[in-house]
Design goal:
- The protein is an all-alpha fold and about 80 residues long.
- It folds into two domains: about 50 residues, no CATH class; about 30 residues.
- It has four helices and no strands.
- The longest helix is centred in the first third of the chain and has 21 residues.
- The termini are far apart.
- The mean pLDDT is about 85.
Amino acid sequence: MNTLERLAPASRARKILSVKSRFEFGHRLGYLPFDVGRVVKRPKLKDTLAERILFEGDVHKLFVTVEQASARRRTPMQEQRAR
């Protein structure tokens, strides 16, 4: 089994680009007669930025939830100082 197959696409792309970079560096320094990584194409990745952006209401709910959780963990002395 290929060790890259079990990785997420972004992790796989990062590892491939790292190896390509090392081959390029070795070629620039003169350790390699030519850059063998140049023939490897950069993996295409799905743009998932929009999936990770929260709506404003979700952010407010998150803050409220965190505040409620931290209020439950406060000792009576901490509660007095928070007011």
